């Protein structure tokens, strides 16, 4: 039995769960999420907790069991608390600004890069070098943060670029070691 899959998902007060065959709609204080799941997985609501069960111990059903439970747990977490990813911009002259609903990033290109948020995502700028991506869908928040980071990933030699908050960037030594050996 899957350790993740067999754990019940507590449904907090104020969250409404509607199960219709293979589609689940979860509504909470922050919004509404709906998703279709594999029809083989059985999703039931018992005593204000969601329970996922599988029909057999086949390889496909075992893999879907934990996945289905994790996706449901993320949906419940999203409509109650939401998700947030923070990005940091490192580099001299690198900065981000908010114009209307779009984000304008200046990271060393000859032109500013404009980023439009995906539906259901809010972008905020703190100072000139921190970007906050928030939303209720964990997948969309992660996708938006990855798209922003891909504009200028951290450089391996100087560490300049856009990185996730608390991301460790290992710097390479460069050519300085080679020049010291010559005489």
Helices and strands, with pairings:
Elements: E1 9-10, E2 16-20, E3 23-28, E4 31-36, E5 42-46, E6 49-53, H1 59-80, E7 83-90, E8 95-99, E9 102-106, E10 113-115, E11 121-126, E12 130-135, H2 138-149, E13 161-164, H3 176-181
Antiparallel strand pairs: 1-6, 2-3, 3-4, 5-6, 7-12, 7-13, 8-9, 9-10, 11-12
Describe the structure.
With 183 residues, the protein is an alpha+beta fold. It has two domains: 9-80, Outer Surface Protein A, domain 3, CATH 3.90.930.12; 83-164, Ribosomal protein L6 (Outer Surface Protein A, domain 3). Helices cover 22% and strands 36% of the residues. It contains three helices and 13 strands; from the N terminus they run E-E-E-E-E-E-H-E-E-E-E-E-E-H-E-H. The chain has a four-stranded antiparallel β-sheet with strand order 11-12-7-13, with helices on one face. The protein has a three-stranded antiparallel β-sheet with strand order 1-6-5. A three-stranded antiparallel β-sheet has the order 2-3-4, with helices on one face. The longest helix has 22 residues, at 59-80. 21% of the residues are buried. The model has no long low-confidence stretch (mean pLDDT 91).
H/E element sequence:
EEEEEEHEEEEEEHEH
- Provide mean pLDDT, rounded: 91
Number of domains: 2
Q: Kindly estimate the percentage of residues that lie in beta strands according to DSSP.
A: 35-45%
Task: Trace the largest sheet across and list its strands.
Answer: 11-12-7-13
Distance between the termini: 66 Å
How many individual β-strands?
Answer: 13
CATH hierarchy, class of the largest domain: Alpha Beta
CATH architectural category of the largest domain: Alpha-Beta Complex
Query: How many strands, what sense, and barrel or not for the largest sheet?
Result: 4 strands, antiparallel
> What is the tally of helical segments?
3
Q: What sort of overall outline do the alpha carbons produce when their principal axes are compared?
A: elongated
User: Helix proportion of residues, in percent?
Assistant: 10-25%
Broad structural category = alpha+beta
CATH superfamily descriptor of the largest domain? Ribosomal protein L6
Query: What does the radius of gyration come to?
Result: 22 Å
Low-confidence stretches: none
What is the name of the CATH topology of the largest domain? Answer: Outer Surface Protein A, domain 3
């Amino acid at each position: 039995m899957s350790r993740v899959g067999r754990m019940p998902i507590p449904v907090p007060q104020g969250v409404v769960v509607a199960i219709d065959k293979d589609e689940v709609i979860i509504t909470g204080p922050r919004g509404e999420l709906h998703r279709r799941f594999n029809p083989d997985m059985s999703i039931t609501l018992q005593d204000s907790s969601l329970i996922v069960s599988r029909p057999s111990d086949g390889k496909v059903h075992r893999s879907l069991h934990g996945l289905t439970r994790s996706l449901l747990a993320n949906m419940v977490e999203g409509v109650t608390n939401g998700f947030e990813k923070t990005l940091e911009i490192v580099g001299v002259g690198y900065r981000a600004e908010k114009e209307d609903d779009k984000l304008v990033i200046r990271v060393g290109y000859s032109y500013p890069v404009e980023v439009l948020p995906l539906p259901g995502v809010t972008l905020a700028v703190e100072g000139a070098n921190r970007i906050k991506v928030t939303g209720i869908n964990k997948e969309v928040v992660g996708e938006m943060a990855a798209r922003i980071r891909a504009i200028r990933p951290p450089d391996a030699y100087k560490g300049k670029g856009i990185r996730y908050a608390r991301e460790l960037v290992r710097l390479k030594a460069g050519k300085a070691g080679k020049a010291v050996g010559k005489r």
